[in-house]
Amino acid sequence: MEHHGESQGHHKSYLEGGGIGSWLTTLDHKRIGVMYLAATMLFFAVGGIFALLVRLELLKSGPLFSPDVYNKFFTFHGAIMVFMFIIPIIPAALGNFFLPIMIGAKDVAFPRLNLASYYVFIGGALLAFLAIFFGGVDTGWTFYTPYSIRSATSVILVTMGVFVMGFSSIMTGLNFIVTIHKLRAPGMTFHRMPLFLWAIYATAIIQVLATPVIGITTLLLVMERVLGIGFFDPKLGGDPILFQHFFWFYSHPAVYIMILPGMGIVSEVITVFSRKHIFGYKAIAYSSLAIAFISFLVWGHHMFVSGQSAWANFLFSILTMLVAIPTAIKIFNWTATLYKGSIHLQTPMLYALSFIFLFTIGGLTGLFLAALSVDVSLHDTYFVVAHFHYVMMGGTVMGLLAGLHYWWPKMFGRMYPEIWGKISWAFVFLGFNVTFLPQFWLGKMGMPRRYHDYGPEFATWNMVSSVGSWLIGVGFLMMFIYFLWSLKRGEKASSNPWNGKTLEWQLSSPPTTHNFDHVPTITEGPYQYGVLR
Amino acid sequence: MLPQASTIAPHIDSLYNFIFWISLISFVGVVAAMVYFIIRYHRSRWDPFKTPYITGHSAMETSVSVGLFILVMVIFAWGWKDYKKIVSPPQNSLEISVLGHQWFWEFEYANGKKLTNELVVPKGRPVKLIMSSADVIHSFFVPNFRLKQDLVPGTYTTLWFQATQTGEHPVFCAEYCGTGHSKMLAKVKVVEPTEYARWEKEEKKEKGLNPAEVGKELFTKKGCNVCHTVTGQALIGPSLLGIFGKNEELADGKKIQVDENYLRESLMQPQAKLVKGFPPVMPTFQGTLTDEEVNAVIAYIKSLK
Amino acid sequence: MTQHVVAEHFESAEQAFEASKLGLWLFLVTEILLFGGLFVLYIVFRGLYPELFHEASHHLNRTLGALNTVVLICSSFTMALAVSRVQHNDSKKAAGLLLFTFLCGLTFMIVKYCEYTHKIHEGLLPGVHFSFTEMAHPKAPLFFSLYFMMTGLHGLHVLVGMGLIAWVLIRTRRGDFSSQYFTPVELTGIYWHLVDLIWIYLFPLLYLIG
Prior knowledge:
The complex is a heterotrimer. Chain A contains 16 helices and no strands. Chain A is mostly helical. The two termini of chain A are 37 Å apart. Chain B is elongated. In chain B, the strands form three sheets. Chain B has a five-stranded mixed sheet with strand order 3-2-1-5-8, with no helix packed on it. In chain B, strands 4-10-9-6-7 form a five-stranded mixed sheet, covered by helices on one side. In chain B, a hairpin with a 4-residue loop joins strand 6 (138-142) and strand 7 (147-151).
């Protein structure tokens, strides 16, 4: 039934109206997305400060902080970045905002669950942060037993925090799967969905299937410390390697929870800023699902030197190699999309291209670590640190920044300043390579990770790496400033500044509370650029 | 470049180099295509409303997949071939047991000889380490050998190697194990087989030294210096400079004067009387140090003024 | 009788129902994976120490375990009947059946409480707290860690289920549900069946298979 005399709310921007209270109790997926964005970016800043402190310690050989303080720094850096920033940010902030819009829906399937997931997330994060005031935690973000059972620090608070945040992740994933299955607008078939949504869908599947396992793992670790149940404690007859299996059964798929949404954003941005149809839509879409599937079968590659059987290593190595294929397909297709496009080099595109550049390095260095014999020499060295930063930061964070600049005008109705966008990009991109490229070399030279101090043979490249971290810091500082500045002072954005073809660009910038006045009917795919059809 | 000091090292390096070149070629390929497209099809040269409608090319996608599949399987098979060598110690290996502690390494030879943070092995003979940990997980890592294996409390893991270069090769702990993780260092001293045979037979030869000098050697050999300085700076444990005769406040608030008995007790039952402000992490040296050695260490500590 | 209003972002009541149902099934998948972790531990430790499981199962009270199994199966049956009654606009009978289901849940928890107190009294406790002297097997504490973790987590689910049943019971009596709208009853029912199902695995694995 059509209502013509719609209430005023339908034509007001979602940003307008209501005080802080109406934000905190909102059921609007867009507002929840924005609240997630604010929280996760704040956590990102905190995690970044810890990263700078870690690099400060490693600037020169010899102690600056005590080893215990340093160990807490890198633990907080890892735990904050993984559980509070990189896992939630793209799905829960950008996904929340754009998923319903991109399928032509008014909201996610369960708005109340959505809000609940936000508060559960904040609650879990606060619980984990509480540990800072109770002696910190020094186990590394991986919480390996038996160290985490013996450690005198606040392991319980942090693991409980991770447990609680896991619930939030499950709620988000569940909500997204149902929304995609049940709330697509008429004509929005799966094969007409934007690739970002395919990526979010694949991510949501992993969130739902893998997160419960970290839930039970952290719960058991807490019980291990409270009740001494002994499953993972060799002194009580348990097996510490079992903990690693449990932990990586979640945490490896979680790597894909982190990277897939970034890949989704890159698919959007590359095609829009080339003004050309994406190359190989189905291959990109299904490769996301393939990656999600394989992600459950490769956890053991984190444990090649843990003492697990050689045949387990055989299996995990061969399966890990398979990940290369869907990943390479994506890189190939993104590059091919540029061919005969009309390349617009604005900030979102610069980040998307940086993604391809850096993620290719991240992916290829994964081959070294997947090859059994080479991994024996490189495991747990700085080579691994460099590798996963190229994937997580060079991949996911670049994807995130591409998406944030791409959708900023839509979310807040204001343009970010393009020139500052480019300057800050240059700092982040160069700083990133200066920081992490030397770490491959350090790892090859044999420098183990999580080292508070090192010998003279590692001095030069560590100094270079630390200087690089300051460049990244400057780049992000600029970005934080200009984003906040643009909220009030930025140039007003038109409804479609990039000539995008997906549904969000048909709405005003920022969108109205109910997204669509009339449910749209979809008749074609999302990337209908070009004349020579 | 790191020396290739074991028989397996050149094999691992060959595969490393193979992957490196394959990766470099792929990376340069992707980036060159990307940069070329960006310049050639920049919007200043290519009308945004006249881009061609290209939706994909299955044959190209398939050939990329198949080509890559073959390549990664080659890498896998190569890695597996060498890995099998890494995990298959020869029958005639010299067996040495290794025990990891927070934060030092203890090596015990078949004849009962014990070394701390130094592993002496003959060149050209396979050596098999049978390893376990006394507390948390550690990882025995010798970059010059390209080898690494975790030490897991409650089970035994093994690692074998055959050294090809004499000299000292650094050992790192590669699995995070707490405060002293980055100081959990050791060295593998590779000697000529004849020298090894001589070394194996020789008894303690601290004859020419006085007890304090013997104690000083033990102090670094047994890894005491990881946690205790002799310069007055507190690390994980209190500095030992001038500690003898001093009044120390204990964790329970009591005071104690540091004398020979207290030092001995601290070596045997380190947790019995902790100095205030330090964590209860020191391992016991019961059974590791002989009575004479304990006396030597105490003599050394007394000499630190 | 209050009329249920379909949330604005749904096209129809049917779409809303379908969405809720899919959501619940996904939630059940996460529940199975949560318990899955414990079942994997069970398989691992049982594989390592089969004789331990044989010996330890004798120290569990099979009669009480069997009683609880019967109680839960009955409750699942009455739950299913309650859902069917609501769908047929028979709120009155449905309320009675829900009450019975709730009481079954309560019985289960009381029996569980008796079992636990007995175990605690005997010192058959998890991990470091284990102080029972008549079991020779050195890994005996591990079995009781498993026992308490598995039945404890399950018991927690029974409590949550009872809370949900109480909630739909109150709403049923208030007349919130009809053949037009019965989503909460149906979803609570499916959840309760899962709780029941998990017990049906736990009982033989812990108590019976020697």
